[in-house]
Amino acid sequence: FPGLADVSISQDIPVEGEITVPVGSSSPDEDYSTLDEPVKDTIMRDLKAVGKKFVHVMYPRKSSALLRDWDLWGPLVLCVALALMLQGGSADSKDDGGPQFAEVFVIIWFGAIVITLNSKLLGGTISFFQSLCVLGYCVMPLTVAMLVCRLVLLADVGTISFIIRLIVVGAMFAWSTLASTAFLADSQPPNRKVLVMYPIFLFYFVISWMILTFTPQ
Amino acid sequence: QMWQVGKRQASRAFSLYANIDILRPYFDVEPVQVRARLLESMIPVKMINFPQKIAGELYGPLMLVFTLVAILLHGMKTSDTIIREGTLMGTAIGTCFGYWLGVSSFMYFLAYLCNAQITMVQMLSLLGYGLFGHCITLLVTYNIHFHSLFYIFWLVVGGLSTLRMVAVLVSRTVGHTQRLILCGTLAALHMLFLLYLHFAYHKVVEGILDTLEGPNMPPFQRVARDIPVVSNAVLNTTAKAIALTL
């Protein structure tokens, strides 16, 4: 190194100092502060994250926020709400008709797990919980459809109400499927999108079927 | 201490991923291939003198089984079956998966006895694609309730997919007795399953069930008793249908 031949350290430049790295004010302090902050702040932060994801589902755009910070609170709330609303229906007037709470719960989670496994086996780049998160959040339009159906059924139980319910459920089913494909299809190689879309279509079809055939006692 | 816990967790996670990776090659398909195989499953092959190639793929069969479950649910609902919805999903999933896995294993066992050259995955795949005919038939006949139409579909569509499976099996077996045993059982089970699926959830069954069931039946007992009642009902309705069409 020719340029360094004439470099010399003069005696008065200090060559000593602190070796300890200053504690980064980002992570350790954040940990401590999230433990110490009031419960309301934690809950509000989580609620805001969940709310942001709901907005993402309503206007499906290709955004990575939904995928990056996955959480399962939203799907849990939606699943429980849907299962509760599907209670009290009956195929006939015998003891307790209608899908049981546990049944709906198991169907939704089992179906979501199967779809996730399928997309991973087909070579997807999305992780297990991210996929569960997306599928759970996209049940939201169907939950809204269930609410509308219940309200319509309060009015009357005739053919007109069936047609209205059919249209609403059909529209929400299409919305759910499109929303989830907008997020999940990107993680697949391009020529296999149909292979991943089809089970999602079946899954939301079964849920829509459960909603459409719900008749209150 | 923490390192050991971490290592144990990592090895458990790895074994889980290893299990998934075992199945990965069976899902390596393109949509074009799936569509081609679906159509092929209805075309019986002519050459039974040398072994036919069977694709050992699980995506198509798995999707077909789930589609069959969905169609069954739709059929149960349109026929207003009394089986309460709490057990509808369970019944549908149990029936379809039970048929696919159970009959595949049984046929694989028979194939092992009869010295047929077929592996378990190929058997699963073959039977799974054979369900495509069932799906089409049930989709049409659950919506259009003519008995004669069902019988035509049963013979033609069911027959075609059975013939294909039988032909493939025959091409892989040597010896007349073995071929007869293997193909006879497969044909019988496949066609009878379609018959069962149609009649088990048929409107006519409802009346018979109604008169036989008491008013205070606990739920799970209902499902268990439906099956023997259904066989009577099947015989009754078959006799009636044949009498009507003749």
Automatic annotation (TrEMBL), chain A:
Keywords: Membrane, Transmembrane, Transmembrane helix. The keyword Disulfide bond does not apply. One of its GO terms (biological process) is endoplasmic reticulum to Golgi vesicle-mediated transport. This is Protein YIPF. The chain crosses the membrane at residues 70-89, 101-122, 134-153, 159-183, 195-214. Signal peptide: none annotated. Belongs to the YIP1 family. It is found in: Golgi apparatus membrane; Membrane. It comes from Sterrhoptilus dennistouni. InterPro entries: Yip1/4-like, Yip1_dom. Residues 57-210 form the Yip1 domain. One of its GO terms (cellular component) is Golgi membrane. It is a multi-pass membrane protein. Pfam families: Yip1.
UniProtKB/TrEMBL annotation, chain B:
It is a multi-pass membrane protein. It comes from the Eukaryota. The chain crosses the membrane at residues 58-76, 88-114, 126-145, 151-171, 180-201. Keywords: Cell membrane, Cytoplasm, Differentiation, Glycoprotein, Golgi apparatus, Membrane, Transmembrane, Transmembrane helix. InterPro entries: tRNA_Mod/Golgi_Maint. One of its GO terms (cellular component) is Golgi apparatus. GO terms for biological process: cell differentiation. Involved in the maintenance of the Golgi structure. May play a role in hematopoiesis. Belongs to the YIP1 family. This is Protein YIPF3. It comes from Sterrhoptilus dennistouni.
